[in-house]
Amino acid sequence: MNALPNPLAQRAVRQDGSLAAPVSGGDQLARRLAKRYGDRITGSFVLPGREGQFAPLPGDMAPALAQALRARGITQLYAHQAQAWNATAAGEHVVIATPTASGKSLCYTLPVISAAIRQQAKALFLFPTKALAQDQVAELLELNNAGALGVKAFTFDGDTPGDARQAIRLHGDIVVSNPDMLHQAILPHHTKWAQFFENLRYVVIDEVHTYRGVFGSHVANVLRRLQRICAFYGVSPQFILCSATIGNPAEHASALIEQPVTAITESGAPVGEKHVLLWNPPVVNPDLGLRASARSQSNRIARTAIRAGLKTLVFAQSRLMVEVLTKYLKDVFDSDPRKPPRIRAYRGGYLPTERRAAEREMRAGQVDGIVSTSALELGVDIGALDVVVLNGYPGSVAATWQRFGRAGRRQQASLGVLVASSDPLDQYLVRHPEFFQGAPPEHARIAQDQPLILLDHIRCAAFELPFKHGELFGAQDATPWLQVLAEEGVLHQEGERFEWIADSYPANAVSLRSVADGNFVVVDRTHGRQTIVAEVDFSAAALTLYEGAIHMIQSVPYQVERLDWSGRKAYVTRTHVDYYTDAIDYTRLKVLEAFDGSPAGAGSAHHGEVHVARRVAGYKKIRYYTHENIGYGPVNLPDLELHTTAVWWQLPQRALEQAFDHRQQALDGFLAAAHALHIVATVAVMAEARDLQKAVGSGDGAWFATPDANGRAQLRSSFGEAALVTQGPFIPTLYLYDAFPGGVGLSAPLYERREDLVRLARDLVHRCDCRAGCPACVGPVLAADEHSETPLKALATRVLDLIVAL
Amino acid sequence: MNALADKLRGLRRQAGVMPAPARRPEPLAGNLSQLLGVRQRVSGIPRRTTEPGALPGRTIAPGLQLIETTGIWPPAPTDFHAGFARIDEMIASDRLLLFDTETTGLAGGTGTRAFMIGVADWHEGQFRERQLLISTLAAEAAMLDCFASWLRPDSVLVSYNGKSYDAPLLKTRFRLHHRACPLGGLTHLDLLHPVRRRWRGVWENCRLATVEHQLLRVVREDDLPGSEAPAAWLGYLRGGSATPLHRVAHHNSQDLRSLGGILGHLAANTAPLSAGAPGDGSGGFSGVAPACVHPVLGKPSHP
Asked: N or C end of chain A: which has fewer CB within 10 A?
């Protein structure tokens, strides 16, 4: 099981493999790399090892289960597993947030199996992916067989054949599924599951840190529906949740299930010392600020580690990169076809049997190097490793630690290396080692009462069971939503009840991964393929799917050939151009209502509701690496409107007049500062960069500023021609806004952390190695501006200095 | 609440949701709304402003109508062996209970309900039809209870595609009302399957309308297509006319009579079970011409 990651397998390798025995640990490798590549290492620190803390198997556990555990070589528990057992036995909802490979799954399998043996209690397990669900069932079966426990566990997902479903519904003690299946197949057919629900005692939700943002908000509503159905069958199951390390496990778990949750965060699993290096590829072209590729560096580090006899895992950001890195390593280590391969790739898209084989080989220690996508980030068991190399920042501190957590042996030091790509976020992080060392992991946030998401799920819930007037859905009185649905004609109100009346199956129209259903599908027509390769939210479509756009899918560039706006389809073909495209968009914001405000340095910060009008007027072609602008294209799409929430900063005219020579300069400063704030804010709320947007304009929507071809601010009062506003009050406003209609709760936490953000943004600009500005701080700067007396970087600093807390 | 509705509409538009294809007054063609008597509603709560006309049948509980008729066609089959339905049992006609539901749609899941349950049996030498119709949603429980009271432990259910459609749907409805499903242990002859085994590939399809035409020479007059039944009932529920519900009842009644006719045909031409499973509609039965004589009209059904 995940707990005690295969001590047997590990020992076996050690005993017979004296030849392969490591010549050094991660600590020695870290020292060697630091010595040889000191200038590339921007940060290095050591996390001390920890002895294991153990507890005996609980006496109140079903004896057959204890027997099965012993048969599997588990004679005692880690302290946190015992803690989870006790809390569960006391009837509490529990969240276990301990590091990767600390044996989280035993925390829930023990109470669940024990209750299944003793009381024929049923359990529902939810995993975010099918692969994890299958792993879990395999583990359950092993434990079951070890003790002949007679507990029946099945996966129930889209691949489950129709004739097996009936048997699973009736006979499954543990049904392992995912939120999408619960939403689309189980809840809308709950009567077929009546027996299962009537005996449902535990709901286990693993990897809850993945349920954040839009997806998390949907999942929280699916859980509201689940609990509503449970109440109908007279049960209130206990929830056991697991999470990777996040800043707010108890709060997040409690937000998901809307009940108090006990958090267990101290791992009792032993870990060796862990070394971490932050690695910035060397500058190869000082004039352009061009660095060597992350790929070349990851390859070099992995090679060195494998040569030193250390089991190494490289995480790459895309499937393509997995294949490239695998090839590079195979060229070195698998040149002799007569020997079993030492390097393995692991990614989505492989057949389950291939994946199982790869996992087995890895666990058995037959593989020396693995190259993987995020597929291995979640709890797939591959045994212990010595070195983890991240080829690029995975997007959050939490995910970084989770991936680093893949390396770790009990008695020996391990090493994690983060290799920065040229992406601004990567560059920011690798230059701020304290961010990793000091900053707590991010908070996972959801907005379960987002109006459109709520409407979708009240719709689905009404299909499942009628609503009574005044009935609560979560904390909300559902009535107004029900009335909206009644007006739409899908519900019928009769007396106090609202009943489903339409001939439709609403769950099919609700995707858990988007707000409302206006999504665009991206169709790949390369070589007549005509297959869907991606989905893009309506709000992002105009910015990323205009005709001529280079659309990146998993780092692979596709060019948009045709956009069918009303059909919500974009047709693309694979391309090999050396540029990317960037939409030129005019965004005008108007403050509708300020919820809150406070002084911010010489100015003020606010949080509230805004109206956004946006037009994509054209696009720029920008060459990779040099960021040269090599052309324009026109775009002709409808304007977009958005009511959403935002956080914004303003400076009074007097402060501006003192700090800047003229308005143009102030605006340039605002746009540059917006770029920097956007980078740090994206990191702070674990958002996708496109879910959070930035803009500069006046507070009343009278004008807005956009960068022109030279990267300088241009003032516009309408979507038409540029105009210079010289009359009237001049109150430039810097906005960060949530890019979904109605918002998904990104701006409130930004407002809470407003002072931090400004400080971080200031540090980012201040410490950036560039002279005048670059994409990693204030945005691209033209060569001509490099030697300006007041470069963007200086102007941004002036703005940020003015709004930083005193 | 209107503010919320407006806000939601605005947000949905911004999220790129296509204008709702759902029921709004506009999409209904003028004449159709007239036909169904649908009026634009002032608020979310339907209000009946004109006389809807009489509902079919008589009221036996609040919101529950019973339509009861008897006839001489189809005649009761003599005791038969149910081998044609792969059931090794002799069945007496007084155990037979034919049923067919009219539902709010085909979407499936817990959101679809039956608003009419039609049941037929041979009672005192005649073909007796009893149709239950609800005129309010609240009457559903009473309808289910009444239907359950007509079932005996030895009842043999007869349906057309009822095993996979009507019975599971009713089972769900019983569940939702916290009632045990009375259909559970009963023998069920679903005539769709024996019909398919014999005539698949012979006729264009095996829908009930096709079978009754081919096998029984039934021609429906002014029949409301089954697909329009949900709209008729919804129209009434929302304050419209009851007239279309008479046509629904008529349609359901014809379904029941055809079901009886098909059963009579199969029962009369059944081979002993030892004949085994006919070869999956392999055309071997295309020549069952002698069987294709209308039991009443006496005309050959195959030219």
From this structure: C
**pLDDT value of position A676:** 92
Across the interface, do A503 and B106 touch by the CB < 8 Å criterion? yes
Tell me the pLDDT tens digit for each residue of A184-224: 999 999 999 999 999 999 999 999 988 988 889 999 999 99
Asked if residue B106 is part of any domain, the answer here is yes
What CATH number does the domain containing B115 carry? 3.30.420.10
Distance from CA of A477 to the nearest CA of B (A): 12
Q: Which domain holds residue B112?
A: 63-270+288-295
For A93-97, A323-327, A669-673, which range has the lowest pLDDT when averaged over its residues? Answer: A323-327
Highest mean pLDDT among A131-135, A352-356, B19-23: A131-135
Residue B240 lies in a domain: yes
Q: CB of B111 within 8 Å of any CB in chain A?
A: yes
Which of B111, B136, B237 lies closest to A463 in CB terms? B111
CA distance A545 to chain B (A): 14
- CA of B7 vs chain A CAs: smallest distance (Å): 9
* pLDDT, tens digit, 9 for 90 and up, residues A485-526: 999 899 999 999 999 999 999 999 888 877 766 778 889 998
Helix (H, G, I), strand (E, B) or coil at A538: helix
Cβ contact A518–B16 (<8 Å)? yes
Does residue A564 belong to the interface with chain B, where contact is any CB pair within 8 Å?
Answer: no
Number of domains in chain B: 1
Mutation target among B6, B17, B171 for the A interface, most CBs of A within 10 A: B17
Question: Mean of the pLDDT values across residues B93-117?
Answer: 94
Q: Which of residues 63-102 of B touch A (CB under 8 A)?
A: none
Report pLDDT digits (tens) over A286-303: 666 678 889 999 999 999
* Residue type (1 letter), B72: I
Distance between CA A486 and CA A488 in Å, rounded? 5
Instruction: Give strand pairing partners of A279.
Output: A41, A419
Q: Where are the alpha helices (DSSP H) in A419-499?
A: 424-430, 433-438, 451-464, 479-488
Distances (CA, A) of A523 to A405, A616, B16, B59: 37, 22, 19, 57
pLDDT score of B24 more than 50: no
Tell me which of A60-64, A578-582, A596-600 is least confident. A578-582
Domain contains B281: no
Using a CB-CB cut-off of 8 Å, the residues of chain B touching A189 are: 108-110
Distance CA A544, CA A542 (A): 6
User: Is A286:A48 a contact under the CB 8 Å cutoff?
Assistant: no
Decide: residue A286, CB within 10 A, 0-12 exposed, 13-18 middle, 19+ buried: exposed
Residue B183 — φ and ψ, nearest 5°?
-80, -15
Nearest CB to A497; choose among B5, B109, B137? B137
Cβ-nearest to B8 among A484, A497, A500? A484
- Which DSSP letter does residue A18 get? T
